[in-house]
Amino acid sequence: MKFLCGSDHAGYPLKAHLVAFLRSEGHEVEDLGAHNTESVDYPDFGHAVAERVGDGHGEGEVTFGLLVCGTGQGIAMSANRHAGVRAALCTSEFTASMARRHNDANVLCLGARVVGTGLAESIVRAFIGASFEGGRHARRVAKIER
Questions:
Q1: In contact, 75 and 67? CB cutoff 8 Å
Q2: CA separation (Å) from 121 to 35, 52, 93, 124, 140?
Q3: pLDDT tens-digit series, residues 35-93
Q4: Alpha carbon distance, N-terminus to C-terminus of the chain
């Protein structure tokens, strides 16, 4: 799988950890920034990742987004402004799995001030390990996209 990753300054340390984690698990990762803890604006990175995920960048391959800010809220809101993006703020393995299974989420958002590195790794694993179930959920996802 390919991941496009982004964060603001508050999310940078967790994002950097998860970039290394994803690579160690054999995933392709492109880090779109931030690249340090100097103050930046989270919408810039939410938009950068979402534009490429929503455009179907990497067509033919599974491409997901991973976004991190302090709470995960602002960066999720920014990403969800883009057509084709279903960004889910997840705080547990269950929410991550269900976001994929029922909502066909393609961007995982995390709050660096909410989850630690161990839980974040478990959330990422749950997100990756789940697949969209389709069926009645496809009808609902289609309504999101309208």
A1: yes
A2: 20, 23, 9, 5, 29
A3: 999 999 999 999 999 999 987 654 556 589 999 999 999 999 999 999 999 999 999 99
A4: 27
Q: Which residues are catalytic?
A: 69, 102
> CA dihedral in degrees (85, 79, 22, 115; nearest 10)?
-120
Q: Which residue has the tokens 């160690």?
A: 24
What is the model's pTM?
0.94
pLDDT of residue 144: 85
Plot region of 104 (φ>0 → left; ψ -120 to 50 → alpha; else → beta): left
C-alpha distances in angstroms, 117 versus 68, 98, 142?
A: 12, 21, 34
Tell me, what's the pLDDT at 120? 98
Give residue 107's pLDDT band: very low, low, confident or very high (50, 70, 90): very high
Separation of CA 77 from chain center: 12
Q: Contact 74/39 with Cβ under 8 angstroms?
A: no
- Other residues' Cβ atoms within 10 Å of the Cβ of residue 114: 17
